[in-house]
Design goal:
With about 325 residues, this protein is α/β, with parallel strands linked by helices. It has helices spanning about 5-10, 15-25, 30-45, 50-60, 90-100, 120-125, 135-145, 150-155, 160-165, 170-175, 195-210, 265-275, 280-295, 305-315, 320-325; strands spanning about 75, 105-110, 145-150, 185-190, 210-215, 230-235, 240. The longest helix has 18 residues, at about 280-295.
Length: about 325
């Protein structure tokens, strides 16, 4: 059983100790009070690379993995927990990138610390999640893109779900979600709710051998928001700043990228964007995130050219055709 005194004392865990802590949380053997106390303790200490890798080991051990035969693919999944309640930018970006020919394996879940998570909006769009590794593999081979609903591939998460929901704040599991894709993608575009977590993700993606971009907007968004400049870590260029002006734009007001009240309304909003009928600001934000993702996927791509390529493709409506092919 987890030693809460050890966690409260802020003593660093090694990889195997961290794996044991996560095993206890995922096993269902802990009371809700004990689990909540453990999550609260972890929230108030700085996490370290070996701890994150140990937590990840346990999550993958308790789940089912998806073998895609070594095919290169990309995930788009942020930590959430930034409190911004934007529309589903990473999901829209995933559809756009898939339509542009990039193989996508996106990992996501229902919203816990946000109004509408990626799984909420995908369900409202009519997407049917694969429930087994074999189903996921077949869908990926047939469609070129697949969306993985975390509870189907990490069923032990049900043992922490009620406590996470009751807490209503970001926890360790916000950090672990983007690092625990059961398909182990080769490329990733992800975002974090703070700079400390971004630095941790940078170390993790390097250690895991992933070609990645990890972003944190300086006003707190866990994606490129175009409301402020963004700090980017990429495995090719390490830490650097990307400004709104780098896209030839001026900063947006935060309300321009706000989400809707319900999953159904968010699904309609996302559909309009993919049709090329969203607002200019919505389309530009999705194109900006896709542009950075394209520079991760293609070492020859440049940010400015990739932005206009993505924006033109989005305006053509072909991303919506891709959505329709995935839900048909």
């Amino acid at each position: 059983m987890i030693d809460l005194n050890r966690l409260n004392d802020m003593r660093r865990l090694n990889r195997s100790e961290a794996q044991a802590v996560m095993n206890d949380m995922m096993s269902g053997s802990m009371s809700d009070v004990h689990l909540a106390a453990a999550l609260a303790s972890l929230n108030h200490r700085e996490l370290h690379l070996e701890e994150i890798l140990g937590f990840r080991d346990a999550m993958l051990e308790h789940g089912q993995t998806v073998d895609l035969g070594g095919v290169a693919c990309m995930d788009f999944c942020g930590t959430g927990g930034d409190g911004k309640d934007t529309f589903n930018i990473s999901t829209a970006t995933a559809f756009l990138m898939g339509a542009m020919g990039v193989p996508v394996v996106k990992h996501g879940n229902y919203g816990v610390s946000s109004t509408c998570g990626s799984s909420n909006v995908l369900e409202s769009l009519g997407y049917r999640f694969p429930q087994t590794a074999e189903d996921a593999r077949r869908l990926f081979e047939h469609k070129g893109s697949v969306f993985l609903h975390a509870p189907f591939f990490h069923p032990a998460m049900r043992n922490v779900a009620s406590v996470r929901s009751a807490l209503g704040v970001r926890t360790l599991f916000n950090i672990m979600g983007p690092l625990s894709n059961p398909a182990s993608p080769t490329h990733q575009m992800t975002g974090t709710f703070d700079l400390r977590t971004q630095r941790l993700y940078a170390w993790c993606t390097e250690r895991m051998g992933i070609q990645a971009a990890v972003v944190h907007s300086l006003d707190g968004h866990d994606e490129i928001s175009l409301t402020s400049d963004v700090r980017v870590y990429s495995t090719r260029s390490h830490f650097h700043k990307v400004t709104v002006a780098d896209f030839g734009l001026t900063p947006l007001v935060p309300g321009a990228i706000g989400g809707a009240e319900t999953p159904e309304d968010n699904a309609q909003l996302l559909s309009n964007i993919l049709k090329g009928e969203g607002t200019v600001d919505q389309r530009r934000v999705v194109a900006a995130n896709a542009a950075l993702a394209l520079t991760v996927w293609d070492a020859e791509a440049t940010l400015d050219a990739a932005f206009f390529r993505a924006l033109n493709f989005l305006d053509s409506g072909r991303a919506y055709d891709h959505l329709q092919s995935l839900i048909s």
